[in-house]
Amino acid sequence: MDKTDFPVYRGRMEYMCLGCGSRYPYDNLLYACPECGEVFLLENLAFPRLREYDGAYWRALFDARAASRNTALRGVFRYYELLAPMLEEKDIVYLGEGHTPVVEAAPALRGAVGLDFAYKNDGQNPSASFKDRGMACAFSYLKWLCRHHKWDEVLTICASTGDTSAAAALYAAYVGPPLKSVVLLPKGKVTPQQISQPLGSGAAVLELPGVFDDCMKVVEHLAEHYNVALLNSKNAWRILGQESWAYETAQWYGWNVDELCVFVPIGNAGNITAIMAGFLKLKALGVITALPRIFGVQSEHADPVYRYYAVPREQRRWEPVSVRASVAQAAMIGNPVSFPRVRILAERFIAEGGEEAFQVIQVAEQQIMDAMIKANRHGHIACTQGGECLAGLENALALGLVGGGERALLNATAHSLKFSGFQDMYFNDSFPPEYGVKPDKSLANSPRELLSESTRAGKSDGEYARAAALALAERLHLRPK
Ligand SMILES: *Cc1c(COP(=O)(O)O)cnc(C)c1O
Ligand SMILES: [Zn+2]
User: Fold this and answer.
1) What is the enclosing helix (H) or strand (E) of 24?
2) CA-nearest residue, atom 15 of ligand 1
3) C-alpha separations of 350 from 274, 308, 311, 346, 408 in Å
4) Which residue in 279, 316, 385, 470 has the most C-beta neighbors within 10 A?
């Protein structure tokens, strides 16, 4: 068989409850255990069959698929066997997601930070955030479900801090009937760019006064009592798709992630769950021989996971927090739905990789903004959450938690353009007091008018251009050659 043909292997997927261990068949949408209410992870009971091939086989296969022109194996499903290997080729939705670039820190930035690091630019996904990875898998599964059950209408719904709704609406619009998209957003807590995305994709966009955690409760209630497809990361199919970030990272580094420290912002905690699950699968399959270290990062304005891990093991108690205004708005969540997943995967990670293989770092709002501005002035395209990761790396360095031949990979989870309003507030010194951010005024930047409107009057186009060129040369103190 050609290595880039669609695989013949099929897995046996099951929902596995993280609370009571109950298992459920995969041919219906389930979000929480009917027995105990806890969240699921999806498990492939035929995973052991993949182990009949060694790590070298899988590395070669994934490397060969990197050159495939088959779009079903081109995006996150390059790692088909590790994601949802019950889907057929015709189910797979591909909008160009995944395989985002790893960009080394600009030399001057690297020098200022004091450690080798790179950004993986997940803002270069189709809807400009990593959420597309999860949606590609969730929507492929939805297509499978619609086929399997012959459903003629499915309402997809999600609560969102902005990027989930952008991604869900995009994929729903692409697939079309029988899918229809509805998104629920906390009013005033999503950027204008993020709102424009589901609007442009034709989704029904509903706003609710409150914060994300309020919206989440609403859609959870809907998913429990009505026939809707929930697309938040409570949906375990999204976690599978997001595991691709780990697979790509390992592949990019030549399947050697020993000495790599990965920084991930934590909001609803789906992404860090997926990344840990992904690396663990690669290790179980012998594709990598050592795990990277994972650093979750949270703002002190929304830090329940940090607080949980900040105390010694025997004192740990899970307690949601009330969030305060955060520039890392996409991660401004006080009661992360996937916390039970994090707890279990962190245990597994530590069991395989040692006590320091999983940690959570806290950062200040000020640090997040300073780091984002600094990164982008060095040619990066970090969003505020990408800034949060850089701030996390700086704090980890200051605390002596990384170093000694290690390098870091920061997750730039969305494109900087989605969060340009925070950049504006930084440049104009207009942060509302609740953020507690004071800009470094020397970094302020704004457009300046070259000529006033009236200077155009009576001039030909050529004269106007010459006058403008002269004004520009004066402004820049250019010397004639
Ligand atoms: C959703 C999101 C996060 C938080 O990810 P979780 O999976 O909710 O922890 C971080 N950054 C961006 C840009 C996001 O869209
Ligand atoms: Zn259960």
Assistant:
1) strand 23-25
2) 163
3) 16, 16, 16, 6, 19
4) 385
Nearest to 182 by CA among 172, 193, 194, 197: 172
Q: What is the C-alpha to C-alpha distance for residues 143 and 26, in angstroms, rounded to an integer?
A: 14
The domains located in the chain, with CATH, are 102-126+245-435 (3.40.50.1100), 451-481 (no CATH)
At 95-120, the pLDDT tens digits run: 999 999 999 999 999 999 999 999 99
Do 201 and 181 form a contact (C-beta atoms < 8 A)? yes
What is the pTM for the complete model shown?
A: 0.96
- Cis omega before residue 192 (within 30°)? no
Sign of CA dihedral 447, 453, 455, 461: positive
Going by pLDDT thresholds of 50, 70 and 90, the confidence category of residue 4 is confident
The CB of 163 under 6 Å from ligand 1? The reply is yes
Q: Which mutation among 161, 211, 243, 273 tests ligand 1's pocket best, with the greatest number of atoms within 8 A of CB?
A: 161
Rounded to a whole number of angstroms, the distance between the first and last alpha carbons of the chain is 65
Query: Which atom of ligand 1 is closest in space to residue 274's alpha carbon?
Result: 7
